[in-house]
Write a structure and sequence with these properties.
- Strand 10 and strand 11 (226-232) form a beta hairpin.
- By secondary structure, the protein is α+β, with helices and mostly antiparallel strands.
- A 6-stranded antiparallel beta sheet has the order 13-12-9-10-11-14, with helices on both faces.
- Helices cover 34% and strands 23% of the residues.
- It has helices at 18-25, 55-68, 79-88, 92-98, 113-122, 139-145, 169-174, 237-248, 289-298, 320-329, 337-340, 355-390; strands at residues 2-7, 27-33, 47-50, 73-76, 130-133, 150-153, 164-166, 185-189, 194-203, 206-218, 226-232, 252-261, 264-271, 315-318.
- It is globular.
């Protein structure tokens, strides 16, 4: 039996269906998480190991757990866990066992956007030009060495938080108030090309399989998590992904973004962790992530996968929970028609296959509706009060 440990610290819903992928591939799945974790909101894990709340105790307990049990694969499912263990692990053998990369010398790029951009530059990987901003002493360099527009990115962050586009240097100066002083902020040229999202699986630096897509809608702003995607086959990305996987030493799932600009692929970011879309690979091609994990178990992950020869084009896929969140938060109620009338086969993206996951998903949606209704009601009461107060009777 191929034994896998899934570990999370942050309570992200994006990890909820990963045990399903691993279980269907033939793995024995242990989960190390808190009792409120979305990792427990499914029926496809074998053992739950309660995690510590304190970060140092969490890291220490995870290290001891891996020492004690001979896991074939450890998967950290969120950025917080990756950053936490990256700062904690000193032993190289344990680092290679637990972390999503095999080359310990590349640990500086984990959870660091600045470190990642420097890595791309030093390894001749096409990536947007950048500058690191700490204080106003960096303004001249940004003005003279970068082409606008630019986007600022907090060195450690996820979900598009605190990302702002400045179309000119004057705009950038105005937006300086949104950047904390001395916080090692990445200022990166913003290429207006075709954005390509990639979900990929690597093992020991080898590319096992991947899917490519474009964004159709997001929860919030342009940089926030996507709720609907259009999947298409892009064979030209294979050598780019292969080279990057070898250089970094990727060892697991990865969420990757490229910008296709003037017929070149520019690498924007690599998050060496799972995302919400990976379980939906089973709806797109036969050689999906379940197939990829089976290749790892069988030890033939170095062989080229047939999936690169299967062309899939314009397959619209939606993530149920996030898309309903978008509809509620943006008041885009008309878009419910896709879910009501099963447009593009949307019903298959609702997690009916797992009652535990379905129930928790519906509880989250119910809470979203309640919170939104409560917010609108409070606003209505406040406006009514102000109106009545201002009236002269």
């Amino acid at each position: 039996m191929f034994n896998v440990l899934l570990a999370c610290y942050a309570n992200w819903d994006s990890c909820a269906e990963i045990p399903y992928i691993l279980k269907l591939a033939g793995c024995n799945v242990d989960v190390y998480c808190s009792k409120k974790s979305w990792l427990l909101s499914n029926s496809y894990f074998d053992n739950w190991i309660p995690s510590e709340k304190d970060k140092h105790k969490y890291a220490s307990s995870l290290e001891n757990l891996v020492k004690k049990k001979n896991y074939d694969w450890v998967v950290l499912t969120d950025d917080v866990a990756i950053d936490l263990m990256n700062n904690f692990l000193l032993n190289e053998a344990l680092f290679c066992k637990i972390m999503p990369i095999k080359n310990i010398q590349n640990r500086f790029l984990l959870s660091s956007k600045v470190g990642f951009s420097k890595f791309c530059f030093s390894n001749n990987i096409d990536s947007p030009n950048f500058h690191v901003y700490n204080n106003q002493d960096d303004l001249n360099s940004i003005k003279n060495n970068l082409n606008f527009p630019v986007v600022n990115k907090t060195d450690f962050g996820s979900g598009g938080i605190n990302m702002v586009v400045s179309n000119s240097f004057e705009d950038f100066q105005i937006n300086l108030s949104k950047i904390q002083q001395n916080n090692n902020t990445l200022i990166q040229e913003y290429l207006k090309g075709e954005e390509i999202q990639v979900e990929a699986l690597f093992f020991e630096g080898y590319l096992v399989t991947y899917l490519t897509s474009s964004n159709l809608s997001t929860v919030g702003n342009l940089f926030s998590p996507t709720t609907r995607r259009n999947y298409f086959y892009d064979e030209k990305l294979k050598p780019y992904l292969t080279k990057m996987g070898e250089l970094i030493g990727l060892n697991g799932f990865a969420s990757i973004t490229y910008i296709k600009y003037l017929d070149k692929y520019y690498l924007i970011e690599v998050d060496p962790r799972i995302n919400s879309w990976m379980s939906h690979s089973r709806f797109i091609m036969p050689e999906n992530f379940i197939y990829g994990v089976k290749k790892i178990i069988n030890g033939d992950f170095k062989k080229p996968t047939q999936s690169f020869e299967i062309k899939y084009i314009n397959i619209e896929v939606a993530y149920f929970l996030r898309d309903i969140q978008r509809i509620i938060s943006k008041n885009q109620w008309f878009d419910l028609y896709r879910w009501i009338f099963n447009v593009h086969g949307y019903w298959k993206y609702i997690p009916f296959y797992d009652s535990k996951l379905f129930i928790r998903t519906m509880k989250r949606i119910t809470k979203m509706l309640f919170d939104e209704t409560k917010y609108k009601l409070i606003n209505l009461i406040i406006k009514s009060y102000k109106f009545i107060k201002c009236r002269k009777f």
